[in-house]
Amino acid sequence: RTLDDTGPISGKTALVRVDFNVPMEDGRVADDTRLRVALPTIQRLRDAGAKVALLAHFDRPKGKVVPSMSLKPVVDDLERLLGAPVRFAEDCVGAPAAEAIRDLETGGVVLLENVRFHPGEEANDPAFARRLADLGDLYVNDTFSAAHRAHASTEGLARLLPAYAGESMRRELEALDAALGNPRTPVLGIVGGSKVSTKLDLLNNLVAKLDRLAIGGGMANTFLHAQGIDVGASLCEKDLADTARQIMEAARRADCELLLPVDVVVAKEVRPGVEAGVRALDRIAADDLILDAGPETVARLKRAMDLSKTLIWNGPLGVFEVPPFDAATVEAARHAADLAKAGTLTAVAGGGDTVSALNHAGVVDDMTFVSTAGGAFLEWMEGKPLPGVEALRV
Ligand code: 3PG
C-alpha cells in the first residue's frame, strides 16, 4: 500500500519513518542526500493536510541517550530544504512527543528524537512500538535503507497502524524490481569492493540470476589467485580460494558468464599520483599491489554493457579514492550513464561506496536509479526478505 491508498488524511497524524542517518562533520550535516530523499513524502502528506511526525535513528547509541547522537542538528537543514518550520521533540515517545504533535498545525512537521535512545527500538519491543503507535493515526515507512532492520519503528509499527510505503520507498522498490525482480534481459551485474568474505551470499545469489557478472576491486584478486594467478603483494583472501572456485562452478552451471580482470593496474604503494603501470596477469611482480582494473578489462566490461539491457552495480572496480586508481571505475560508470541516458540500459546501483564512486565519476544523476541504501541494498541483492518491506505487505 502506498500513499495513493490512504484515503482522506486531513487533520490526522502520520508517523513517518525516515532515514536521517546522515554523515555529520563538526555537528553539522555533511551530506543532505537522505534529507532530500524524504521531501516528496513529507510534502505530499502536508499537502493532504496531515500533521507529520518524523521518526528516525542516528548512529548506534545502543538504547541509551547519547547527546552526541541527537537528531537535533538535522532540523536546520530540513527546514531549509522543506521551506517550512520543523519542530523538534526531545523524546520520540511520552509527553514531549505527544505535546509537540498536539501543538502542530495542519501540515506541520515535527522531528522526534533518535528512536534508538530507547532499547525497545532495536529489540522491536511490542510495548515500545505501542507507545509510538499511540502518537499517530497512520504509519508511513519511507526508509528502504533501514528496511533490513526488524525494529519497532521499521517493522513493529506497521502491524499496529494502517501502514503505507512512502514515495522514496515506492520508487526504490520499483527500481529494484526493474533490476532483479522483473528485469529486461540480458542482465549484467558488477560487484566490486575489497573482500569476497563480505559478499559471499550476494555472489551466490547473483550467479543464479544474472546472464553476466563482472567481478572487480580487491575481491577479484581472490578469484585470480583461485585460478593459479600470482597476485603479488595484493589484497587477497587466500583461505577463500575454494569458495571462489565454488562460485565459479555455480556460475558455469547457471550459465552466468563471469567476467574477471584480464589485465590490471599495479603500483608499489597506495598513494595519490604514485607511479602506476598496466600489467598482463602473468607479469605481476612479487611486490606489486593490484589497485585497479586494466584498460582491456574495462573495454570488455563496456562491451558487456552494450550487450545488456539491465545493469545492477555494487562496489568500485579499484581504489577509486586514490587517483589514478579511479580510472576503471570512472570510465565504466560514464559508459553505463551514457547508455542509461540513451535509454538502452536500465542502470541501477547502490551500496555505500558505490554511491561515492558514482559521485566521483559525476554520473549519479544520469543512472536510471541510485539507491541511498547501504546494508539494505546488499541484503536485497542477496535475495533476503527485508522485514521493513515485508511488514508493509500484510
Ligand atoms: C544505513 O545507514 O545504512 C541505515 O541507516 C541503517 O543503519 P544501521 O546499519 O545502523 O542499522
TrEMBL record:
UniProt KW keywords: ATP-binding, Cytoplasm, Glycolysis, Kinase, Nucleotide-binding, Transferase
Catalytic activity annotation: (2R)-3-phosphoglycerate + ATP = (2R)-3-phospho-glyceroyl phosphate + ADP
Residues binding substrate: D19, F20, N21, R34, H57, F58, D59, R60, R116, R149
InterPro entries in alphabetical order: Phosphoglycerate_kinase, Phosphoglycerate_kinase_N, Phosphoglycerate_kinase_sf
Leading EC class: transferase
Similarity remark: Belongs to the phosphoglycerate kinase family.
Originating gene: pgk
GO molecular function, one term: kinase activity
Organism: Brevundimonas balnearis
Annotated compartments: Cytoplasm
EC number per UniProt: 2.7.2.3
Pathways per UniProt: Carbohydrate degradation; glycolysis; pyruvate from D-glyceraldehyde 3-phosphate: step 2/5
Name under which the protein is recorded: Phosphoglycerate kinase
Subunit organization: Monomer.
Entry binding sites for ATP: K199, E321, G351, G352, D353, T354
Main subcellular location: cytoplasm
